[in-house]
Amino acid sequence: MASSSLAGSSSGYLSTDSTSSSPASTSLHPGASSSSSTPPSTTAPPSKKQLSGWKHSAAGSLGGMTGAIVTSPFDVVKTRLQSDLFKHSTTAYPRKGAGVTAKAVPVRSGVAGGLWHFWDTIVMIRRIGVEEGWRALYKGLGPSLVGIIPARAINFYFYPTSKAYLAKQFPNAPTEKPGQTAEDSPLIHLSAAVVAGIMTATGTNPIWVVKTRLQLSARKKTLPASFYSAIPSPTSPLPRPIATSAAALSASASAMTGSHAHATAARPSPANALSMTLDIVRHEGIRGLYRGLSASYLGVSEGVIQWVLYERFKRIGKTTSPHLDEPRPLLSYIGSIVGASGGAKAVASLLTYPHEVIRTRLRQPAVHGVKKYTGLLQTLKLVLAEEGVHALYGGLTAHMFRVVPNAACMFLIYEVVAEKLGS
């Protein structure tokens, strides 16, 4: 039932009603004597303390903050690979003095395209570290933390409270098995997730706009001229496709940064979150802080899929675990929480990833005073026309490296903290 303890399935802390007086609770102790002078209500096992809304928020905020810190480098890499401001050229520049003819980089599609995504992630991490310093891999972490705390607080507040409210309003909601309550209904889970997703996207969109702008602002270190000439030669021990890609990415770094710097020379990129926020408001107005909101609403579907699958995966783990109603030590259910949360996030991200690319493009700064991407459908059509379908999956590898461990870490800490607050 929805009020079962976290030790059994960790689903008890996503419920706000109490069912301690249900018949199922009294049937757990069949050995109790009917003639006992003790009142029947005291023979039932004590019910788990149900959490109030703010405790859900506190536990979710702590989990989200921890996950954001651990996976921040992949967030920066993902954002840059999603943007067209950091696309490398389609030809490999020859090494100075080597007399090598430039070769076209192979088209990225199919299984090979997936390998190229992985290689792009590795090269982008190295390029950021060498050209901008390893601290640049944590660009936007401040706004991320500022955004994660209210975002997770809003999400983890509205999901369980909406689920409890909707279950009371629709007590006959369809369930998968007899004996389940309305809070176990997939329709209730879906509806609560929609409410939580819309509230979260609306309340935190300005923070994510500032974070994206900071991550797209490249500030290069001064590098020796020999760095850009150190491109793998034809005798490189690396496989030819990998050597060619590395050559293209390394050699185009100076050209890319030069064009990006020229595009933004008229308006130097702010260096911190406050100045970036003021810059956006000054040049684009308050509406500039809500760029990409339509794509964020489209991304609510990801949160819906994630929550529904998380509830489902936890229930699967519960049905395969012995002694469901007995308290279990923390180590015994870490695996089920990590597996349910990571698996749910992986599936949801793969199904809905293109909206992430569209949202990043919408939040890009103007180039030469011109906004290339102006709307959801316009952005989708333009990306497909100029770059093809594969561009909608740019940065997917870095994204998966970030969101799967992030979700596992966040939900694990949430469930553990919720258990402590509810004990």
TrEMBL record:
It is a multi-pass membrane protein. Keywords: Membrane, Mitochondrion, Mitochondrion inner membrane, Repeat, Transmembrane, Transmembrane helix, Transport. Residues 1-47 have a biased composition (Low complexity). GO terms for cellular component: mitochondrial inner membrane. It holds the Pfam family Mito_carr. One of its GO terms (biological process) is pyrimidine nucleotide import into mitochondrion. It is found in: Mitochondrion inner membrane. InterPro entries: MCP_dom_sf, MCP_transmembrane, SLC25A33/36-like. Residues 1-56 are annotated as: Disordered. Solcar repeats lie at residues 51-165, 184-316, 331-420. Its main location: mitochondrion. GO terms for molecular function: pyrimidine nucleotide transmembrane transporter activity. Signal peptide: none annotated. PANTHER family: MITOCHONDRIAL CARRIER PROTEIN RIM2 (PTHR45829). Belongs to the mitochondrial carrier (TC 2.A.29) family. This is Uncharacterized protein. It comes from Saitozyma podzolica.
